[in-house]
Amino acid sequence: MDNPQLLDNHGRELTYLRLAVTDRCNLRCTYCMPAEGIKYMPERELLSWEEMFRLTRILHEMGIKKVRITGGEPFVRNGLLDFLTNLAGLKDLEICLTTNGVFIGEYIEALKKLGIRHINLSLDSLDRDRFHQITRRDDFAKVYANLLRLIDAGFQVKINAVVMQGKNEDDILALTEFAREHPVSVRFIEEMPFNGSGLVEEKLFWNHARILERIRSQFPDLKARPFLFGETANTYDIPGFKGNVGIIAAFTRTFCGSCNRIRLTAKGQVKTCLYDDGVFDMKPYLRSEVSDEEVKAQFLTLFKSRPLDGFEAENKRKGVITESMTTIGG
C-alpha cells in the first residue's frame, strides 16, 4: 500500500494528531478529575514510546502535518524529551505541547533546540487563591513564572482557560487584559463533562455567547478574525493589544464541521471524536505484529464511519460520560 490520504466519510481531511502520552497529572483540576484523583493505568498498560513513535510516523506518512503532545501532564512521564527528539526527526511535522506549566521550566532550552515553539498552557486563573481552588494545588507561582519565561524565550503561547460558573468568571476580563501587554493567544473554553464524575450539565451557563458578551462589555472594539478550517476557536483582535483572544465552544460544539483531528489516548484507544468512548484499541493490535500497511488500512476503515459531530458521537456511546479528561488527552 502506498501512503493514502486520511479522509473521513464526510470528506474532511485529517491532518492533526492529538497524542496523549500519559493519563497521570500532578494537578487535580475540578473540571478534569475528582479531588482524590483517578485510578491511573500502570505504565506497562500504556503505549510504549516506541509504539507511539511508530503510530505518529505512520500517520505522518498518511498526511498528518501536526502532532500535539498532551496528557495528563506530559512532563510527568519519564522519557518525554527523548520521544520529542525522535519526533523532531520526522520531516515537516509540526510538534506542539499542551502542559499545565508546573514542570516545563527546566525543559525550555531543550525544546527550543528541538524547534518546538508552540505551547498551550492551561491556566484558568491569574489569582493565586482561585488557581489553588480550581487545581487543588498551590503551584500558581511556578506556572506564572514559567509562562513569562516561555513568552520571553519567543514561544508561541496559547493560554487555555476553562470558564466555570462561580469559580473564575472574574478571570475572563483579567486574562483578556493579560493579552494587552503580552503576545499570547488566550483561549476561553466552555466547560465539558469530562470530570470523572459521570455528571453532565444539561445547560451550560458560561457558553461561548455569554463569554463573548462579557469580553465585549469591557472591550467593545474587538474584531473577529476569519475562521479557518480545522480551528476550534473563534478568535478576536482588540486594538492596541499585543495578543488576541478566542472562545472554544467545546460543549456547544459549533466547530465540528471542520474537524481535522485524530485522538489517541495513552492506553492506545483511537478516538474519532472527543465525545466518543473510543472506537478501536490500537495497543493489542500493534502488539500482534501487524505491518505498517495493515495499520494504515485500519485507520482508513475507522474513519469511514466517523460521526458527523460531537452530538452524534455522544449519542452512540455505550453509556453516560464518566471518564476524566486526563485519560482522553483533550
From TrEMBL:
The record's listing under PROSITE patterns reads:
MOAA_NIFB_PQQE, RADICAL_SAM
Query: What's its top-level EC category?
Result: lyase
Q: Which domain of life is it from?
A: Bacteria
Q: Which part of the chain is the Radical SAM core domain? A: 9-223
Name the residues that bind [4Fe-4S] cluster 2: C256, C259, C273
A Pfam family matched by this chain, by name? Radical_SAM
Q: Where along this sequence does the record place binding of GTP?
A: R18, R68, T98, K158, R261, I262, R263
Q: How is the cofactor bound?
A: Binds 2 [4Fe-4S] clusters. Binds 1 [4Fe-4S] cluster coordinated with 3 cysteines and an exchangeable S-adenosyl-L-methionine and 1 [4Fe-4S] cluster coordinated with 3 cysteines and the GTP-derived substrate.
Q: What does it catalyze?
A: GTP + AH2 + S-adenosyl-L-methionine = (8S)-3',8-cyclo-7,8-dihydroguanosine 5'-triphosphate + 5'-deoxyadenosine + L-methionine + A + H(+)
Q: List, in alphabetical order, the Gene Ontology terms for molecular function in this entry.
A: 4 iron, 4 sulfur cluster binding; cyclic pyranopterin monophosphate synthase activity; GTP 3',8'-cyclase activity; GTP binding; metal ion binding; S-adenosyl-L-methionine binding
The record's EC number reads 4.1.99.22
The UniProt keyword set, sorted, is: 4Fe-4S, GTP-binding, Iron, Iron-sulfur, Lyase, Metal-binding, Molybdenum cofactor biosynthesis, Nucleotide-binding, S-adenosyl-L-methionine
Q: In which pathway does it act?
A: Cofactor biosynthesis; molybdopterin biosynthesis
Q: Which cofactor does it need?
A: [4Fe-4S] cluster
Q: How does it assemble?
A: Monomer and homodimer.
Q: Which HAMAP family match?
A: MoaA_B
What is the protein name given in its UniProt record? GTP 3',8-cyclase
Origin species, per record, is Aquirufa antheringensis
